Amino acid sequence: MSDQPKDQPLSDAPASFAKEQLKAFIERIERLEEEKKAIADDIKDVFAEAKGTGFDPKALKEILKIRRQDADQRAEHDAIVDLYLQALGMIG
């Protein structure tokens, strides 16, 4: 016995499945986008709270950026920046 509805021809089954699958993907993405926005709002609130207690949000963002980097890549980047600053006479 087939799971195919009687009013739907067999040839429409793959199209119907694809349509339902597409709809499911879109709905999942929409839910994730809503969650992402909620998390972004939470992060914004934490930055505002930190600023309210005297911390500099730009500095916090820089620290977060640094913490995400690989230690070796960060050391290489810092060495290059120091070299450039020396070349410009900005550091001894």
UniProtKB/TrEMBL annotation:
Native organism taxonomy: Bacteria, Pseudomonadati, Pseudomonadota, Alphaproteobacteria, Hyphomicrobiales
Family: Belongs to the UPF0335 family.
GO molecular function: DNA binding
Keyword RNA-binding in annotation: no
Statement: the UniProt record of this protein carries the keyword Iron: no
InterPro entries noted in UniProt: GapR-like, GapR-like_DNA-bd
Protein name listed in UniProt: UPF0335 protein NVS89_22615
UniProt keywords, alphabetically: Coiled coil
Domain GapR-like DNA-binding intervals: 18-89
Organism: Ancylobacter mangrovi
Residue stretches in coiled coil: 15-49
